[in-house]
Target: DUF7919 domain-containing protein
Amino acid sequence: MRYEDGSPYAYTPGIGVPQGVQAVNVGWLERQEFPRGEVPTEFVHALAVLCRDNSTNRMRGWQSCTLRHPEGKPPYPVVVNVDGTEITLGSAEIRLLARDGRWLIAPNLVLHYVTAHGYLPPREFIEAVTARRAIPEPPSGMPRF
Model:
C-alpha cells in the first residue's frame, strides 16, 4: 500500500477511527521516492517500543517490504528485536495523536523503513512518537467506531 504522507487516511476507513476525527497517513511507502535523512536515536527507540506495545488494527498475514534491499531479497516477514522481544512487522498500524488533534496513522512496518531505508517521517510524526502519544485500540468487545 502506498499513500502520501499527510493524505487522508484510507487503508481501513471506518475501522477504529471515530467519525469527525481527522486521520492522516504517514509512512505508507512502496517503490517511490520518499524523504530520507537522519532521525534522533530516541525517536527510533520510541518507535520500536510503540510498534511492540501499541500496534493496532491487526490484519491477517504480513505486508512485505517492496523497497530495494542492496543486500538482496528483502526479509519476509520483517522481524526485529525490541529490547529483547522479537516482533513481526507488517500486519498492523501505529496510531498517534498530533499536537493539533489529528491522528497520524502508519503501518508498523514504518520502523523498518526508518532503520533500513533511511525514511525521514514528517516532523510532527517524529514529535508524536518521541512523546509516545499513542492512541490505544478500543478494548475487545467495545465498538471499533
Notes: The longest strand covers residues 78-82. The helical segments are 41-53, 110-117, 123-130. Strands lie at 23-25, 78-82, 85-89, 93-97, 103-107.
